[in-house]
Amino acid sequence: MGIDSADVTHPQATDKETERPEAAGRQQDNATPDTGRITWLTLAAIAVFVLVGFFLFRSTGQDDGYISYWPAHTLAHYGHIVNYSGEAVEQSSSLLWVLILGICALVTRAPVPLLGPLLSIAGGALAVVLASRLATRMNRRISPYAVLFTASAAYLMYWSFSGMETSFVGVCTVWLALAYSDYLSGMRARIFEVLAATLCCALVRPEMSAVLGVLVVGIAAALWIRRQRGLQEAEEFKGVAGRIGILLLVALGCILGIAAFRLAYFHSLVPEPALVKGVKQFHLMEGLTYLYQWMFQPNVSCFMLPVACLTLVGIGWTLKEALTDRAMNLARLVCALLLLVYGGFILSVGGDWMLAGRFLVHILPVAIVLAADTLGRFTPTRFLPATGAAITLIQLGGIIWYAIIIGVGTSPLSAPQGVDPQIASGFSWFERNNRLYLRDAAPEQAVDRVVTRMRATGSPTVHLFSGQMGFVMYTLGTKHYGQLDVTDRHGLADGRLVGCSVSKGQPQKANGLDIRFDWFLAHQKELTQECHIPAPDIIYDIGSSNAKDPAQLARQHAAQLQQYGYALVYHRFCNVPPNRDWLPGDNKIAVEEYIAVRKELLPTLGMHEVPIDQFQDATL
Asked: What does R_g of the chain's alpha carbons equal in angstroms?
């Protein structure tokens, strides 16, 4: 007995058999194909997921979301994908997300910043549905727990309201595990679904191409070892080997096809962010710290402990069965290997700089399904409902905890302070309910005034230098498309600095190139002569939100800009205080924001210089 071609339930299976760990992985685990219908429990869980998310988080979007919004906007309105300067540069890390947003914006004519959060919320809901279906491939009785655990996952809920691709990455990986396990087991032989799931994964994140390749090789290696150990019959192995060969061809075809498209369209094999985020170095200790922080750290992620521990036990037990037992459940093997491979990626790159375990969400639905399966295998039937309810309650507590400590949303009960209602009226609902975007609304208006005056003087192109490629630059781009030339000091939105010999030795961090504006201005002549990077007319940026003495740092920035021939025309500490009286705590977002122009432009622009020791707006 080895891997059954259908991997379906035997009528004689009993709960007692499924409770025993030694029986796990066999057909007696009640693995069945789903009927395609969504249960009432799943619908109720999705409803709670959406309602709780709107009430507690409302809008969790980060500035980086607009890096993907911009190419989606240009795709919908101009028919091509370009960066802020109009160049064919892939500034988004998720080509799939750009395509989905662009097509939806083209069809609906709705603004991309409104569609982004709506679609990411839909992605979170879809992850709950697919987790339920994947769970049935392991043991049909654990499907309700997979639904409850996924719908109450704090990280998934947080990122589902961000407008970023994160929840859709989770959808793609859980769909991949479902499609691959069905195809390999022979439960379903729909090659189109395998192709679609593979394409989805390869397009949604740049690292997924490598993950896919290693995953398929890992599955093949595991089954070959089983054959060598006599755990699988020759005829059976021959059939599965043929299906693995098809998977390998599909994965290779998708990877090469996407690479060829990127090379032809963007003249690069990978997106720009993948070139500058320090992925060329191995960051094992940073990766271990990242996993500890977002899975086990008591004061940060203690609510993740049950699912994290169950997942680790599930991975270990699955691999032990694969190498020692004659019976094996392929869905478990695919999930375990996928988690190991992506976990290896996180360890190698050191994780991510963003909050709420963003990289973990990419595989969180798969991990939750394996955790629910482990719970079902090791927990006696009479204790299973109470244990599942306890884990769900712990996770719901985690949602409330996160809403308290990292919420950037506004209260539905009162209007936030320090926001111009006229400016906010032009925003989408999600932008009006996000303090980060409201904070940057005034600086965006100020930069727009400077750009508008420069264009009025007859300047055909306005050259900007900034490290902020999100909300402010997106809004400027929609108003001044074709008239902006933007250099990103982090190298995410253009390839100028990363491909320049002058800046070649600059360090790379998790958020891109670490190039300060004073270094850039000090090397401006070399950058222009050797790499054709134009001198900026306008510099817009923000200070550090973690500075011990923000005022002193702000004065230092002003003095450095003045030293290199630039004059401040906007210099303020921007903040939108929290107004959620019903939720204590605050994710502090106050930050210094400044706009500087070349001094010789002041008379033409009709603006005066803001003194170094003052904070005001001279663009009005």
From this structure: 26
